[in-house]
Amino acid sequence: IAAITGIIGVFATALLVAVISQKLELTRSERYVHNFVATIELAKAHKDQAANVLKYGWKVWYLRRKGKSNCIQYIQTQRKLLTSIHLARDIKQRQRKLADNYVSLLELFTVQRSTSAVTDETSQRVIVMEQKIDKVEDKLVEINQGMLNLEDKLNILLDRITKK
């Protein structure tokens, strides 16, 4: 009885986890919206950090030009510049990861399968068209032979008429 109860408990837990995970999974359209919003937020953050890099770079240049490269303000500004550069690189890396996650493996498989089906259908149509073109070429050869025979017969008739 304990073993059966344990097995039923494991199956019930597995079923519960499967149902909950399926309900929590985002649909395709929800994923696109989420990725769109995340892309916009990352782009805004990247612009902000790029502006900070310019601002602190300008301050470092200005303080160095004034000869204050040993003062505490110069060192703080330089630290802020390096932090901004690091954050900009980090944001850029997150943008790349987000771009990689736009398409799931299931969607990729679905697109590949539909592309394969369309390719097969197109190749079948090409084969049918080639067969039809071959038939048309054969008919044209027959028509050409018939025209040549007709021309020969007309020339023979014309020769007979001119000889009389």
Automatic annotation (TrEMBL):
Key word Transcription present: no
| Alphabetical list of InterPro entries matching this protein | CaM-bd_dom, CaM-bd_dom_sf, K_chnl_Ca-activ_SK
Residues in domain Calmodulin-binding?
A: 39-114
Would you tell me the Gene Ontology cellular component terms? membrane
UniProt cross-references to Gene3D superfamilies, sorted A to Z: 1.10.287.70
Q: Which UniProt keywords apply?
A: Ion channel, Ion transport, Membrane, Transmembrane, Transmembrane helix, Transport
Membrane spanning segments where?
none
Checking Pfam families in the record gives:
CaMBD (PF02888)
Keyword Transmembrane belongs to the record: yes
- Spell out the SMART domains in the cross-references: CaMBD (SM01053)
Gene Ontology molecular function, alphabetical = calmodulin binding; small conductance calcium-activated potassium channel activity
Bilayer topology: Multi-pass membrane protein
What does the UniProt entry say about where the protein is found? Membrane
Q: PANTHER family annotated for this entry?
A: SMALL CONDUCTANCE CALCIUM-ACTIVATED POTASSIUM CHANNEL
Question: What is the official name of this protein in its record?
Answer: Calmodulin-binding domain-containing protein
Give the organism's phylogenetic lineage. Answer: Eukaryota, Metazoa, Spiralia, Gnathifera, Rotifera
